[in-house]
Amino acid sequence: KTLQIAKALASIRPSFISCTKNLNRDDLVFMEKCFQRTLWEYEDFIDAYGTPTIVCRRTGEVAAVGKEFCELTGWKEDVLLGKQANLNVNTGGTSGQLASSRGGSNTPRMPEAPKSDQDGSRLQPVFLAELLDDDSAIAFYEDFARLAFGDSRGSVTTRCKLLKYQTKADVEAGQDTKRQMTRNGRNGNAGINQEDGKVECTYCWTVKRDVFDIPMLIVMNVSDLRYHAGRPSRY
Hints:
By secondary structure, this protein is α+β, with helices and mostly antiparallel strands. It has 8 helices and 5 strands; from the N terminus they run αααββααααβαββ. The protein has a 5-stranded antiparallel β-sheet, sandwiched between helices. A hairpin with a 4-residue loop joins strand 1 and strand 2 (62-65). Helix 1 packs parallel to helix 7. The longest helix is centred in the first third of the chain and has 25 residues, at 25-49.
């Protein structure tokens, strides 16, 4: 499964290199300023929109998130933005290489003195792949490879499974509750996605590009299938 993602990203590597090879330091600084300006505009929009929304850099790092998304998945905003340690142990219950690789982000980063929380965990933004189960993550990167340098107005609307934020303590508490319900003669697996820690959703996302026509950020709008039968709004 990891190979499938690598293959999808490798397909856009030549285009990315071609677009960036002539950029200098001033261009890169300008790109970041454009990103921050666009992000500031989206943050105001997210606050007023009322639909679970998440914005990521082209690398997949979460850059902005709405409170509705946090309520849907259980992830805290500070955890997603890298201001608080990520103690999530929920990888979707699969045993593949992709699931095992999510124990911590291994995306290359610029050398710097890492910030740490009280438990010694490095503080950094969560990556989008950490929020999706394996099949959804593969589908996302395949679609991203198609849209990144393709149709600038294109978008993807499909189903996915988001992973709920669960710490080790949450998992143990859930197991205790399940055993108690079973002893009381009730179905210990009652409820949607309570067993595997996933939320089945429909999502619509698109890629926004900068002035150099390079993918800048990913805007994702989510609709929980438990409450909404329709398709999510498009940007």
